[in-house]
Amino acid sequence: MRFNPRFLTIQDIEGAKGRLQLLGPSEQGLSIMAPKMVCRSVYVENVDSRAANMLKQNMLSIGGEVSLPRDAFAFDGSQIAVIISGNLKHYRELMKKLRLQPFGLRILADELEQLLDSESAGRILKLGGRAYDLGRRTLIMGVINTTPDSFSDGGIHISAEDAVEHGLRLAGEGADILDVGGESTRPGSDFVSLEEELQRVIPVIEGLAKLTDIPISIDTTKAEVARRGLDAGCAMVNEISAMRLEEDMLPLVVSRNVPVCLMHMQGMPKDMQVEPRYDDVIREIAQFLRERADAAVEAGVSPSNIMIDPGIGFGKALEHNLEIIKCLREFRSLGYPVVLGPSRKSFIGKVLDLPVDERLEGTAAAVALGIANGADMVRVHDVKEMVRVSRIADAIVGKG
């Protein structure tokens, strides 16, 4: 006789319940067993070393684990990082214990609860008078470049008429959002003047706004371009500097009450690909995005209006981009929708040794795996193809 053991893929409570249903348990048994099947490892920073040891003992007592650095046992009150591992039942019991403990552990209990609850919370993006349920399908943002020097399609849609026609084609192919940009951010590029950027994007936005009801995004770092774009019909701002470059950008987003995408970029386009370095690429990007999102909320931006983008290709080497896509779900723990922009990027060219115009299949693979790993929106050039890819990926991961 063979017992045929095999690993199960279980990511959440619903997945656990689905597996358990095959066994035919009682409803009471289902509710008791499902949380024990969903396991999580949580990285926590700035823990008092005394609290870390209490945390470990509490988690060990209920069957979980807390991994500590060697210097945690100095008990000197220094700040350290730890990794907590356990199933959802462990976490619920741990949080009860922590609320009775000193050294900031009560606060940690609240943050853990918020983190775990965020996984099952419904996420609705309101954009241009529409409400998108991000749990039902991945959104597609179609790229409209009005620049002569963008890395992928520079000069192709440089006239307003051509750009509007291209935007309408993307809308017909299934784009949920049209992202209009008038300043190339390819590696080595310089910023253009305010007047030049306005001349490139405003006629396109005005033309699209008259001919389609698809929400339009303005891709810019300049507050005045964003203001004029919103006046012309845009419904959101896509900001590669996470609103660091111009002090007027943040108040503008607050006053207009529109969604904004905050992207991570190491350096500036001119120098961002000159030997980018990270000690821990996921932790450092997540920390940056958390700080920028916190600053936005503190200034008055509604949390429901914030999206985050780890910035594929913006100050990242090949290995950084691959790691970001592989670990994309970690950014979901920040509590905001995650946007991914892998389309035709150089990391695909490096892996496949192919030029920009031959990266469709590579983009499709990156989009599919990005969705599997937690992307809520993908920014792409090839909308028709990526709509098809995303629908299959959505079906596999259980959206809808």
From TrEMBL:
CDD domains: DHPS
PROSITE patterns: DHPS_1, DHPS_2, PTERIN_BINDING
GO molecular-function term, one example from the UniProt record: metal ion binding
Organism: Candidatus Solincola sediminis
UniProt keyword Transmembrane present: no
Group of enzyme by EC: transferase
Keyword line: Folate biosynthesis, Magnesium, Metal-binding, Transferase
Name of the protein this chain belongs to: Dihydropteroate synthase
A single GO cellular-component term on record: cytosol
UniProt entry tagged with the keyword Lipoprotein: no
Pathway: Cofactor biosynthesis; tetrahydrofolate biosynthesis; 7,8-dihydrofolate from 2-amino-4-hydroxy-6-hydroxymethyl-7,8-dihydropteridine diphosphate and 4-aminobenzoate: step 1/2
Biological processes per GO annotation: folic acid biosynthetic process; tetrahydrofolate biosynthetic process
Top-level taxon of the source organism: Bacteria
Catalytic activity as recorded in UniProt: (7,8-dihydropterin-6-yl)methyl diphosphate + 4-aminobenzoate = 7,8-dihydropteroate + diphosphate
One Pfam family this sequence matches: Pterin_bind
Membership in a protein family: Belongs to the DHPS family.
